[in-house]
Design goal:
Blueprint: E1 11-18, E2 21-22, E3 28-38, E4 59-66, H1 75-90, E5 97-103, E6 107-111, E7 118-119, H2 122-133, H3 143-154, E8 161-168, H4 177-187, E9 192-198, H5 204-213, E10 218-221, H6 227-239, E11 243-251, E12 257-265, E13 269-270, E14 276-277, E15 282-290, E16 293-302, E17 311-322, E18 328-341, H7 345-349, H8 353-376, H9 380-397, H10 400-406, E19 410-414, E20 419-422, H11 428-436
Parallel strand pairs: 2-18, 4-5, 4-8, 8-9, 9-10
Antiparallel strand pairs: 1-3, 3-16, 5-6, 5-7, 11-15, 11-17, 12-13, 12-16, 14-15, 17-18, 19-20
Length: 446
């Protein structure tokens, strides 16, 4: 059983990497913004000191377990799901509020029941594990109902961190895509959620859309035997979160427009469309909950044209926690994005290494997704071209994990030129793993 103390509040820092020099007439400014929080939570899965006593550790967690009929095929799937959820319950810190939800075409409270949350201690953890042993498979799949129940239960706790862990093995066949999207829209910003698909009968885009909308992680657990270790890691990470609802606030001067804001590490996540206005010329982009960790964001702005030798502040990036009354708590870290116009061709045409690297990583994720879609559609030439480009990008950027996954779908003739052949037979688990993990990035090699 993992032991966690309640983490201390992390300190945030912001670093900006860019080439601020623009040629005459240049208007596009790109910057990589690295946000780091230290001094709170867990780092790289390390466990903290023993659990503290006390009624409230500032977090609430909902564990949503697929109990549809397909979870009995093979029977080991349901058994592993029960064991994995029990392992996650064991990882809960004392004082954390929690619930276990059984998901079919309806959502049922498995523990504690009665429309309430339990508070983790030795007794409630044991009671939850006893309740899990009674879980059986039967019924359909309507994931939106699971998420809405999780939201209702989580919102009953007066805590800072609200988090869900969702496991499914099948497609969301008992509600419309519109119903699931409406549930995600209703839950977005209210809790974060990690989503996992077990086996190979689920829909990758459904699972990744859940994690994306709720600012969590998505992954495949092709072999149900791997669930317990994965659930333990997810819960350890959740227990390390200490600051919720952090937003990247981007201020720009008059005449400057934001072209995009996206997270580029540890995964590619488009944030541009999630902006909420935050006063004159400022907008907030949600980043979810933080513990001890570091993430990278690509900010691209268009500035007014200026003459040679002029310079301006193109954007100011800070970190805030928006408050219910419309104000915001500033987390005391900011970075500046600058623009300087020069006739020095060497300076103005140089691409910052971080910007170049993450532009390639974003293209890599897109090439994989487009290549796999074309492969499913039977467009062999198109799929070969896209996946070949993905192999080339993965090799050039040092993304060894993605390169290995690609090599299970294509035969690599020449990685440097992106020359590949589609494999005649590809294991379904290998294709789904590549698609699910396509947005995972690596950082710039120092």
């Amino acid at each position: 059983m993992a032991n966690f103390s309640k983490p201390s509040v992390p300190r945030f820092s912001v670093d900006v990497y860019q080439n601020e020099y623009l040629p005459e007439g240049g208007r596009e400014v790109n910057a990589i913004v690295t946000v780091t929080s230290t001094g709170g939570g867990t780092l790289a899965g390390a466990t903290a000191a023993p659990r503290p006593a006390g009624p409230d550790a500032g977090a609430a967690v909902a564990l949503m377990v697929d109990c549809s009929g397909s979870m009995d095929y093979p029977p080991t799937k349901m058994r592993n799901a029960r064991d994995a959820t029990a392992a996650a319950v064991d990882t809960l810190r004392d004082g954390v509020h929690f619930t276990v939800i059984g998901g079919t075409h309806v959502a049922k409270e498995v523990y504690p029941g009665g429309g309430r949350l339990a508070v983790a201690d030795a007794v409630t953890r044991e009671q939850a594990k006893q309740a899990l042993r009674r879980l059986s498979a039967g019924g359909g799949t309507a994931i939106g109902t699971w998420l809405r129940l999780a939201d209702r239960l989580l919102s009953s706790a007066d805590v800072a961190i609200r988090h869900g862990i969702l496991l499914t093995d099948g497609r969301n066949e008992h509600e419309s895509p519109e119903d699931l999207k409406a549930a995600l829209d209703a839950c977005a910003g209210r809790f974060t959620c990690d989503a996992r698909g077990v086996g190979t009968d689920w829909e990758v885009k459904e699972v990744t859309s859940i994690a994306s909308a709720l600012l969590g992680t998505a992954d495949i657990v092709a072999d149900p035997a791997g669930l317990a270790a994965d659930f333990t890691r997810m819960m350890e990470t959740a227990m390390g979160k200490e600051v919720a609802d952090v937003a990247l606030r981007v201020w720009t001067p008059v005449g400057t427009t934001i072209r995009f804001v996206k997270q580029v590490a540890p995964t590619v996540e488009e944030l541009t469309g999630r902006r909420t206005e935050a006063g004159p010329r400022a907008g907030d982009y949600p980043t979810g909950s933080w513990g001890d960790e570091s993430r990278d964001y690509h900010v691209c702005v268009e500035v007014p044209a200026a003459g040679l030798g002029q310079e301006m502040l193109a954007a100011r990036v800070s970190l805030v926690v928006p408050q219910p009354d419309g104000s915001a708590q500033n987390l005391g870290a900011q970075g500046l994005v600058r623009a300087v116009w020069t006739d020095d061709m060497t300076a103005s045409t140089s691409i910052n290494p971080q910007v170049a690297h993450y532009t390639g990583q974003a293209e890599l994720a897109q090439a994989i997704q487009e290549g796999l879609d074309l492969r499913k559609a039977g467009d062999i030439d198109g799929a070969t071209a896209k996946l070949g480009r993905a192999v080339q990008l993965a090799g050039a950027s040092g993304n060894a994990d993605t390169a290995k996954l690609l090599a299970k779908v294509v035969d690599v003739v020449d990685a440097a030129t992106g020359t590949v052949r589609l494999k005649a037979k590809v294991a379904e688990a290998d294709e789904m793993t590549l698609e699910t993990r396509s947005t995972k990035t690596v950082r710039v090699k120092k």
